[in-house]
Design goal:
The chain has 47 residues and is mostly helical. Helix content is 89%, strand content 0%.
């Protein structure tokens, strides 16, 4: 029972990490493409 719950939690964490990485990479790409190094650095440090 406990193992099943751990597996479910691990799967949820994995999904959140994947979506978080996708969001972060898209934000970084957006800021890098806008040619504003200051804003991209600020965004990375906030995240």
């Amino acid at each position: 029972m406990r193992l099943r719950f751990a597996n479910r939690t691990y799967a949820a964490v994995q999904m959140n990490a994947v979506s978080g990485l996708k969001f972060a990479s898209s934000t970084v790409k957006f800021h890098f493409s806008s040619d504003q190094p200051g804003s991209s650095v600020g965004t990375i440090s906030k995240a």
